[in-house]
């Protein structure tokens, strides 16, 4: 039997690597204040794959708690808290009149969003549901073309392809016309867009901010804590938010994905001011330009619609997980139906138990996920969690005609939410997200019809019997992916 010895010069290097990993493990345990499951996942990665684990830790990890994000001035705190307190007191009156009668059933959700999400509730809104990328892009470009005053735009992904460049060219033209144009980009998601690409836009007077731009281009870029929001506000009158980014795949022009099924909303009414406020806070943090937080509402008697909306945001700087709490409230108070669409279903135990309780209470719980992965580990973790819910009696559907990227939840045909938030820990804890919670029976039933159409014409049901037939390799992929689910 031959004995293999490591070259003597490699021993100090290995000792150094393991010493660094031990320090990283100590940091994970004592300094970062992560959830226990996330802590254990990181310890496993650092302990069993020390070199790769160390690189992963540098790329993925960052202590966000020390960074001051989205701070209101003292005057803004007073104005916002006073106005919100007044609204909450008015709505505590049992005789408070909601325009849509079914909204009364969800006043507890409105109150939760007011308390945890500091979210105003408004009812004078018109909301348009958009489920096709080309339709969205054409509609938004027409609205931007008609802008007279301001365009505030915030995106996780804008790519340097014909779709992204056509948008940038239009924004450049509007800046030349004297419109104030602000473009807030996530540094990682918009990594192909830089000052050189934007030179004509900047020369025309357009403004740009790069969210969490690193000091060192390669080593400073973090994969966690990304600005995943998609917000457009035009002339303080029209707003868009939802799941679509700006690139050719989002209008179904990338062969790899085929048709891109997503969901967005176009809003007019007071909810526009709330989305614009979200943009302003992110813009101030990123660019240090001290824009005033505008709280302007519609003029008296100016009512574009009668739909109730709350804009709720969440991010890693807040421990409240505001969007997740609101979704859990919707699920636990469901009496008839829960329809959920998400590309990534990697929930924490509280969400899993909420869905299980709904099923066991007789609620018809249905989940739709894509048939193809764009992130392999996340896909197999998703498959595992869907299997767990199938075992409890939920129903699952696979979207077959392209890629499903919609992030929607609708309950009892009465209330729904659409936004940037995926049903996973990354969205709930690690990314900056924004969702519109919409309180209107007609709109909620429109969301349900879209789900049913996808279910009937663009997908197939994954039964528990089908799930049990998966092979050993898939089971192995699920086990590994689920083990790492808190850091995916």
């Amino acid at each position: 039997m031959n004995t293999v010895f490591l070259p003597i010069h490699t021993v100090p290097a290995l000792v150094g690597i393991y010493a660094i990993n031990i320090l990283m493990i100590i940091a994970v345990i004592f300094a970062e204040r992560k959830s226990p499951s996330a802590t254990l996942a990181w310890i496993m990665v650092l302990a069993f794959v020390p070199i790769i684990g160390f690189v992963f830790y540098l790329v993925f990890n960052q202590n966000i708690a020390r960074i001051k994000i989205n701070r209101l001035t003292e005057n803004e705190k007073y104005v916002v808290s006073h106005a919100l307190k007044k609204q909450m007191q008015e709505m505590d009156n049992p005789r408070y009149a909601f325009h849509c009668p079914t909204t009364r059933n969800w006043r507890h959700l409105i109150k939760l969003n007011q308390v945890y999400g500091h979210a105003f509730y408004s009812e004078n809104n018109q909301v348009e549901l958009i489920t096709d990328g080309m339709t969205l892009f054409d509609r938004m470009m027409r609205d931007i073309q008609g802008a007279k005053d301001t365009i505030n735009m915030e995106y996780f992904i804008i790519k340097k392809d014909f779709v992204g460049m056509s948008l940038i060219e239009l924004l450049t033209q509007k800046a030349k016309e004297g419109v104030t144009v602000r473009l807030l980009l996530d540094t990682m998601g918009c990594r192909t867009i830089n000052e050189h690409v934007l030179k004509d836009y900047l020369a025309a007077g357009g403004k740009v901010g790069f969210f969490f731009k690193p000091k060192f281009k390669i080593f400073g870029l973090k994969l966690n804590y990304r600005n995943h929001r998609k917000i457009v506000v035009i002339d303080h009158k029209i707003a868009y938010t939802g799941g679509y980014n700006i690139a050719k795949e989002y209008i179904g022009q990338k062969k790899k994905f085929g048709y891109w099924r997503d969901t967005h909303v176009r809003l007019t009414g007071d909810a526009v001011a709330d989305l614009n406020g979200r943009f302003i806070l992110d813009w101030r943090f990123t660019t240090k330009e001290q824009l005033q937080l505008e709280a302007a509402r519609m003029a008296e008697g100016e009512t574009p619609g009668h739909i109730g909306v709350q804009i709720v945001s969440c991010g890693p700087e807040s421990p409240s997980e505001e969007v997740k709490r609101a979704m859990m409230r919707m699920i636990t108070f469901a009496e008839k139906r829960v329809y959920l669409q998400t590309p990534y279903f990697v929930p924490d135990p509280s969400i899993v138990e909420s869905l299980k309780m709904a099923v066991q209470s007789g609620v018809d719980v249905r989940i739709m996920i894509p048939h193809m992965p764009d992130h392999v580990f996340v896909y197999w973790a998703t498959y595992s969690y869907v299997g767990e819910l199938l075992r409890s009696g939920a129903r699952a559907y696979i979207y077959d005609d392209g890629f499903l990227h919609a992030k929607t939840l609708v309950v009892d045909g009465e209330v729904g939410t659409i936004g940037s938030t995926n049903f996973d820990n990354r969205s709930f804890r690690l990314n900056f997200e924004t969702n519109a919670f919409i309180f209107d029976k007609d709109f909620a039933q429109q969301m349900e019809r879209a789900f049913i159409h996808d279910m009937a014409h663009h997908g197939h049901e994954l039964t528990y019997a089908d799930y049990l037939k998966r092979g050993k390799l898939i089971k192995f992929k699920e086990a590994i992916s689920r083990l790492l689910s808190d850091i995916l």
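The radius of gyration is 23 Å. The mean pLDDT is 87.
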